[in-house]
Amino acid sequence: MIYPDNCLDRLGFSEVRQLILKHCLSPMGQYMVSKMQVMNKFDQINKFLRQTKEFKNILENQEPLQISTFFDIKSLAEKVRVEGSYLMEEELFQIYLSLQTVFSVLRFFEERKDVYPNLEALFEHLPVEKNILRKIEAVLDPKGKIKPNASSKLQEIIGDIAKGEQEVRKRMDVIYKQAVASNWVADGSLTIRDGRMCIPILAENKRKMKGFIHDESASGQTVYMEPEVVFTLNNKIRDLEFDKRREIIRILIALTDDLRPFTPLLLSYHGFLTKLDFVRAKALFAIEVEADMPVLVAEPRIKLINAKHPLLYLSFKEDKKTVVPLNIHMNENLRIVLVSGPNAGGKSVCMKTVGLLQLMLQSGLLIPAHESSEVGIFDNIFADIGDDQSIESDLSTYSAHLTKMRYFVAHATPKSLVMIDEFGTGTDPQFGGPMAEAVLEVLNNKKVRGVMTTHYSNLKLFAGNTPGLENASMLFDNDKMKPLYVLEIGKPGSSYAFEIAQNIGLQKEVLALAREKTGTNQNRIDSLLVDLEREKKQIYDTKIQLSLQQNKVKNLVKENEELQQFLEENRKTLIKEAKLEAQTIIKNANKLVENTIAGIKENQADKVATKQLRQDLQKSLVQHQVKEEKKPEKVVISTTAIEVGDWVQLNNTETMGQVMEINRGNLVLALGDLRSVVKKDRVQKISNKQAKKVVQSNSFSGRMSEAIGNFTAELDLRGMRGENAIQEVEKYLDKSIMLGFPFIKLIHGKGDGILRKLIREYLRKYSQVNRVEDEHADRGGDGITYVYFN
Questions:
Q1: Among 226, 403, 551, 759, which is 20 to 30 Å from 462 by CA?
Q2: Pick from 628, 664, 668, 663: which is nearest to 648 by CA?
């Protein structure tokens, strides 16, 4: 149930319908779009959504599906159904072109069987009857005209007409030349009047030639005469023309009779073309607004991620602006979101986005939101937007609002979605606020889902203290005095009335008087909200910086552990190799000694020879001597208490850092350019002198800083094959995550969109990837993908 009747107009659904109408190729498709209804059956909505998504995939993948020409063959089939009627050449040709489109589409899906199962359901059990085409092709030529040889009689008649016209032309040429020689002819040549070939004769000479005058010029100085000699021949040609027309009608009647048994099939083809045009228009609109299919759930809940208002998106797209995406959720525990904040800060757009996307989804349209969004189904959609005061109905603005509230309360169920703009306005705030609070409490007790906007403080306070309700605010930049159009759930927002008034230049004396009249409590509440907003933004910015620092520390620790593990794994291998090398050296030394002793014996201990042999032995031993490695200087552990400025070493590691702050049992350490918090019992104090030597000799931090400095958050994949591109993306992602970069930029180009699709499917496998987005349309659009990490 949709209430009130103008709900579709107020939420912008009627404008969406008009945009889809422009993509239709036929009046039948336009009729289906105009009759598009909001549904509440899960299976039906799911079927329509999946059909649109499949057709969108066909268009985006540039599949060779040609749908360009088809007509309203339903009316033609109804005409065929009547006995004795017949279709004209143009009508038969329309059926022929439409059926060619049908068979082309059927052939496309037959070649891709089971690839698009939901679209295949549109023509399930629909036969391909090509006899219809053959019967039409036997009569019509490729341009849709009757073939001269459609029948033997027609061919004979056309031949006789050609011969008669040739004979008439030959005789007319002779008579015309004689008239020209006699100066009877006016300016001009032979011409046609009333289907007869005539000679333009000067009026004063009209009695000099025998014939029939068919016409005269406006001035009366020229008459158009058919010579008596060719009159009989022209009559014969006229009779042949009548015979030709009768034969053509006979052929068309016979062809129509042949098509009459196929009338039910023609109607089925018509239905298929109508549905195809309808789905195609929805898919084109989805591409236009960058819509996708969310996760459809049967429960009445909403979780929109990076949602955009489609009409606002198209408007901003023309002006080359970007829409700030909306993130909002409603479920069993958080049923109603009460949005507050500054004027022109986006509260109404937020509410209308939720309402319009819900209407679109339940009408079978894809929505401009991330595919991981979750959207349920509602039985009732109620909206109170705008001023519905009526002179005819004797309704004031507030009376109109109360009339809707009465209807909402009477018909609301847990499967109702309620949207109210400027809740409680239209009357004295002293009474409008409590009335709105009462309505809100009743709706909450009925467990409805909804989005409401307000400036009333009592509603904000009520939402903050009531289960099922939740405050939300549109963020505002206090420094620049501009709205950020970002929804933040969890706290109320200030109206920034005084700040905005001051920003636009309202006189100081007016502002001062206004503050006095507002009251101390209200001013204090508003100031608290403004301060809370400012502190929230500062905390948010600090949180982002801290997260980046923690990621860097985490990556450094991880790399350190990996290096230690690598050294541990290779220590045994190195020792084994060293032992083998030592054994080889000893073996070679033994051989040298044995050879030296043998030489001494051979020379019978000659002093000169013995001395020379000893020198050679000493020289060989020096060459094979293994230089003793310089042992690393042992770190001296200090037993004194740890203070700020001291150097400490992490237990069981070689990582050292300087103490920047001591907080109970925790230490804030400076590890190069990074900061880390560790427990006091996980470190040991070392001497400053020793720490400086080790830090200077340790190049790990330098190497890490160098890696971060040399890394560019941009990877160009254009021209690569799919497999090579995926390999490059894998290595690049691992390095980006290890270095703690918040996002990267992948340049893959547009082309056929195949490389873009492969990359985005691969990115889904990474749990560290938060989301992916296209570059701005002016800077590459969907040819560039931004990848944001958690």
A1: 403
A2: 668
> According to the annotation, is 46 in a ligand binding site?
no
Residues paired with residue 472 on neighbouring β-strands, in sequence order: 339, 489
Q: Which amino acid is present at 330?
A: M
355 marked among binding-site residues: no
Handedness of CA 728, 729, 731, 735 (dihedral sign): positive
pLDDT digits (tens, 9 = 90+) for 611-638: 665 666 566 655 555 444 444 444 455 5
pTM (2 d.p.)? 0.60
d(CA 568, CA 744): 34
Residue 344 known to bind ligand: yes
341 in a labelled binding site: yes
Split at pLDDT 50, 70, 90, the class of 355 is very high
Question: Across-strand partners of 380?
Answer: 416
Residue 567 confidence class, pLDDT cut points 50, 70, 90: confident
What are the CA-CA distances from residue 81 to residues 136, 266, 272, 637 (Å)? 17, 11, 19, 104
Q: What is the DSSP string of 468-507?
A: EEEEEEEEEETTTTEEEEEEEETS-----HHHHHHHTT--
Residue 630 is predicted with a pLDDT of 45
197-205: long-range pairs with CB below 8 Å, 24+? 197/168, 197/169, 197/172, 197/226, 197/230, 197/234, 198/224, 198/225, 198/226, 199/172, 199/175, 199/224, 199/225, 199/226, 199/227, 200/224, 201/225
Contacts 24+ apart (CB under 8 A), 700-705: 700/559, 700/560, 700/563, 701/556, 701/671, 701/672, 701/673, 704/556, 704/559, 704/672, 705/672, 705/673
What does residue 784 show for φ and ψ, rounded to 5 degrees? -135, 135
Strands (E), 712-782: 714-716, 743-747, 769-774
Residues 6+ apart with CB under 8 A from 30: 21, 24
Residues near 612 by beta carbon (within 8 Å), at least 6 away in sequence: none
Distance CA 552, CA 708 (A): 10
CA pair distance 128, 99, nearest whole angstrom: 9
Lowest-confidence pick of 16-20, 391-395, 414-418, 473-477: 391-395
d(CA 785, CA 585): 60
Return d(Cα 786, Cα 769) in angstroms, integer.
11
Q: Please tell me the number of Cα atoms within 13 Å of 246 on its side-chain side.
A: 8
Q: Please name every residue paired with 745 in a beta bridge, in sequence order, or none if there are none.
A: 714, 786
Q: Is 552 annotated as belonging to a binding site?
A: no
Q: Is 682 helix (H, G, I), strand (E, B) or coil?
A: helix
What are the structure tokens assigned to 593, written together? 């000694």
Q: Please, what is the angle between helix 508-518 and helix 520-602, to 10°?
A: 100
Sign, CA torsion 712/714/720/725: positive
Half-sphere exposure of 193 (CA within 13 A, CB side): 17
pLDDT at 380 over 90: yes
Q: Is 725 annotated as a binding residue?
A: no
- 345 assigned to a ligand binding site: yes
What's the one-letter identity of residue 180?
V
The candidate with the shortest Cα–Cα distance to 171, out of 235, 237, 233, is 233
Residue 347 is labelled as binding a ligand = yes
pLDDT of residue 500: 64
Both structure tokens of 293: 């299919």
